[in-house]
Amino acid sequence: MTLILIGHVTKEGSLAGPRALEHLVDCVLHFEGERERTFRTLRALKNRFGATSEVGVFEMRQGGLVEVVDPSARFVGEAEPAPGSVVLCAMEGSRPILVELQALVAPTEIVPPRRTATGVDRNRLALVLAVLTRHAGISLSSADVFVNVAGGIRVDEPGADLAIAMAVASAHSGRSLEADGKPLACFGELGLTGEVRYVAHADRRVAEARKFGLGDVLGPKPGDDRIPGLRPVASLRAALASDGSRSLRRAA
Length: 252
What we know:
This protein has 252 residues and is of the alpha+beta class.
């Protein structure tokens, strides 16, 4: 017999009150999604009989929820080279997922300027903006910055740092990031000194990007192994000065 208990969730996304409810059950599932979006994600926060890092993607249709077998095709199907748009090679558990990450930088007279993040952690956005200012010379103190993960999915891994930085830099310069006529794909964690740090499953991220016909992927150095299709960069400054960024075409 299966027993389902439903608990209240706080604004931070955790179960409210004492953690007795979590200790009672064998599995804690978190079902999330915006009301205006058709996509829903199901995450396992606790699982005594399996992995807790897996995620399921579903789409709300007329007949109910339907599993999305290939989420990457849905999330990047409409992605085109444009200022402020990059493709993030993310990992959800053991599954690589491609999502379009968009940024908008607009002048403002509001003090302090607005920092809005949808689909990524706002604290990570603040860190990335600080690294951009300190190590790339991009000052955003008089501009509003908006970052959004298209499709309504949320990405909670440090591997999104490089994609956020590249999207914000592209939006700030007004130039599109592309590789072989497709949006630039990238991933990697940013350190406070501006270096691009290693993240897990680099080979699977690159393979997913190549499956969809994307060009060379910007990412951290994988160590001694060479990954076909990966263009390794050691720092954020090197990523912004890479061949793919120097040949950016100015948006019409």
